[in-house]
What we know:
Helices cover 93% and strands 0% of the residues. It contains 2 helices and no strands. Helix 1 packs antiparallel against helix 2 (31-108). The radius of gyration is 35 Å and the shape is rod-shaped. InterPro entries: Desiccation-related_membrane (IPR052928), YtxH (IPR024623). The chain crosses the membrane at residues 6-27.
Amino acid sequence: MSSKNGNSILAILAGAAIGVGLGILFAPDKGSKTREKIKEGFDDLKGEAKTKWDALEEDTKEKFSKTKDELKETVEDLLSSSSYKAEEAITFLEEKLAELKKQNAKLQK
Length: 109
C-alpha cells in the first residue's frame, strides 16, 4: 500500500471517528436515535473504506500487470538477442572447424 493511500484512509477513519464522537456529545436525540446515527455513520465509514480499498486493489493489480508485461517483453528481447548471439557463435565455430579440417587434411597428405 502506498503511503499516500494509507494516509488518506487513516485521515478518513480519524475524521469519521471524531465526527461520531462529537455527534454523540452534542446529540439532543434519545439514546436509540443516537445509536442509529452512530450505526449509520459507521456504515458510511465502512462503505468509504471499502471504496478506497477496492480502488487501491485495482490500482495495485494494474501496476502489477504492467510490470509483468514489461518483464515478459524484456525476457523475450533478451532471448531474441541471445539467440542472435548464439547464431553468430555457431557460425564462427563452423568457420574455425572448416579451417581446422583443411589444415588437418594438409597434414594427412
